[in-house]
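Team,

Forwarding the record for the chain on the shared tracking sheet. I've put the sequence and predicted structure together so nobody has to dig through attachments.
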Amino acid sequence: MNKHESVMRSRLSPYIAAVCSAGLVVAGVWALAKSEIERNRQQNRADVLLQLSTKRAKLERALNSRLFITRGLVAYVSNHPNVTPQQFQRLAEVMVSEQTGILNIQLAKDNIISHLYPFEGHERALGLHLLEHPVTQKIVQHTIQSKTTVVAGPTPLVQGGKAFVSRTPIFLYSPDSPGEGAYWGLVAIIIDPEVIFTDAKLLPVNKPIATPTGRQPARAPSGFNTPIPVEYAIRGQDGLGSEGAVFFGDPDLFNRNPILLDVSLPSGSWQMAAVPLGGWPVSRPIGWLYSLGGFLAFSCGLSTFIWVRKPWEMQLAVERATSALQKSQERYAIAVAGANDGIWDWDLKAQEIYFSPRWKSAIGCHPHELGSNPDEWFSRIHPDDLERVEGDIHAHLKGRSPHLQTEYRILHKNGSYLWMLVRGMAVRDASGNPYRFAGSQTDITDRRRAQEALRVSQEKFSKAFRASPDAIAITTLAEGRYIEVNDRFLEMSGFEWAEVIGNNSTELNVWVYEAEKSACIDELQTSGRVSDREIHFKMKSGEIRVGLFCAESIVLEGVPCVVSITRDITERKQYEQKLYHTTSELQAIFKALPDLYFKLDTNATILDYQGGKVSDLYRHPEQFLGCKIHEVLPSTVSQTFTQALQEVKENRDLVYREYALRINDRIKYFEARLLPLLENQIIVIIRDITSRKQAEIMLYQAKEAAEAANQAKSMFLANMSHELRTPLNAIVGYSEILEEEAEDIGVPDFIPDLKKIQFAGKHLLSLINDILDLSKIEAGKMDIYLETFEVAQVIDAAVVTIHPLVQKNGNHLQVNAPPHLGQMYSDVNKVQQVLLNLLSNAAKFTENGTITLEVRLIPDRIFPPNPPPDWIEFRVSDTGIGMTPDQMEQIFNAFTQADPSTTRKYGGTGLGLAIGQRFCEMMGGAISVSSEIGSGSTFTVRLPYRFQFPANLME
């Protein structure tokens, strides 16, 4: 290099430095301006997205709040398929009153419109077959197949105009398979679109308020930006999403790079677009930034030219410009990080994918753990969700959906699955082929868990609501109108579901007392709830019952409501009333009775007492309350009580005891009854039985004296009878001898007198024998002589003996007996004496009649398992004078006949039947009688065929 060239370079150096420095400044300013433009663009789109999200939420709430009211109608029709027009009108009136913008409610049974509300103005729609109408055919078919609510529209109406039409299929309720019942038809709600758009603030409601004269327009507070005016458009008619027609706003809006959001419908979706009014604005800072950049470039160049030896100043300017650029980039990074979303960017041609650190950390991985292979993503998707996610991605890449939005489960590093919401959009070339696919992933696990918890909670509430034994009702807070009631409410009130829904308690005349209603309302308004308040309510039938009422205020679908629970306690109150009266009666009886009541525990400690005068007690209450029995009573009495208490504890049954105490120098007798009261308590009832015991003692002494006198009488009769029989036998014997001598010496005139002496002697001897037998029986000296004998011979002997007496009164004797009676083991004399007595009585009290002796053998089926003895029965019947019931009660008493007149007419002592009854009892049998005055009598003797001594005698 020569000197000239060095000089030229030194001359040009300031210019070159100035130009270079100015160029660097211009480049920095250009980069900063570009970053600022991008930031402003992103800010504008974020503002528009925020406003669009708000409008979408309001639109979904406005639409869903009106679709919600169909649930009750669907539930009612599924349980009441024969709904009448009147019932439908009452339900529809309630629905229309709760929400505005509902033009019409329809029921289409078998897809034919059969019910309308309101009817006026919509008459042309009645009877329309939805499957035959070209506008509604496809939508109705889709509704039936999907079994969900389908929102169509705006749709032209038959009666004119356009509206949204929500159709919900109705399937009849089936307890065996809920939700799978037969298809009934549709319920449709016609909704005014303008009302929906107005509620969503998509249409202006009020005009702007003019600023008063002399006052400056209000400005936004410092630090806040005024929202950008936005215009909106909606497409997706009939729920077709991005493929549907535009039905709100300017259709061209979708071609102006809009912000897009989907509006969820029960089946399908709409797509909303938003663009700033007048288009996307150009960044305002660009002009002054360029001016500033030019000025800086000029200044920098001039400064460099002047201070060419100060390069650090030029470097500082460059660093400032670079710092501004870095800050702009950091804003984007902060915005992404603040959204808490993971970013993914998929190069479809290279099949490489980028995962942001947030994407990786969301599934528990470090930034270096995941590669760029798409399998790193798809291998972690839950197997049940993988096919659906791949299908959604494929559909978007093929252009069948405007963007990707789906939910799925992804495997976390700890082995659990997280729910993720993935959104994305493909970048396409000029031919429409995708070459890049990017989007975000948001962790929605908490939201899904909350949704699942809400679903489980709602399911539990629904089951509890239906199965509750208490009446549950949900009413609006403002007017108290019933929204829903359970089956127990209908059962308790007696109303039908259609009669309750839409009405309030005043219209149903439920409250009996206005004061109770006012008290419940005041408590609800004061504390937000009503707890355990007793009320009186009236059923539909007019019956008044008592309930335990609870209520609490809640909010359902944004509407203040009240949930109330009523438990029918009528029976309990009636029981309490009866218990009160019973207790009062028992207390009154308790006070009126002369008994003493003591309450003891199982350790024999006296806990309490009730009684009359303190003077009746063995000791003063202060001396025995809290003490044990053995500390109060004498040892003999306390031992009696101790044994009784032990018996009560073992058997848990009533125990009696009697004891004596000396009170006030006088012996008193008491009866104690011990009963178990509770698990560890015993009640003792004590009664003074001194008078009764004294009476028993006197009665016992009298009994002993009577028995002694009776025994002395029996001994006297036995001795007298024995002494009388000896001379009577002599009189009878000598009269027979004299009768024979009179016949021998030929003095027949003496024979009748001798026969009378002989008959009188025998009769007197018979009476003495009867008295002797009775005295032996009463004295216990009558013996039984057992032997085996033929029953037929006894019957024959009795018939032969009684035959003269039967013929004397012109009677006829008939014997009915089996041919083979066999041998009987008993006292033959007593059996024969009983038969003769019955037959002689029958012959004596019957004239020109029939006397029947019936004999039969009876097996004993009462006393198994031992071989039962057979019984023999003798039945003597006559057609004589008969007896009255009073006479039958006396005939078995000694020295008694049925009527005193019979003694005079027929004679006798009245001892025969008494002796016969005693003989039958001694032989283990019995005798009974049946008779009717003027129709004869029947005596029945039942004796054991084989006599057996009683077990107590055999011992």
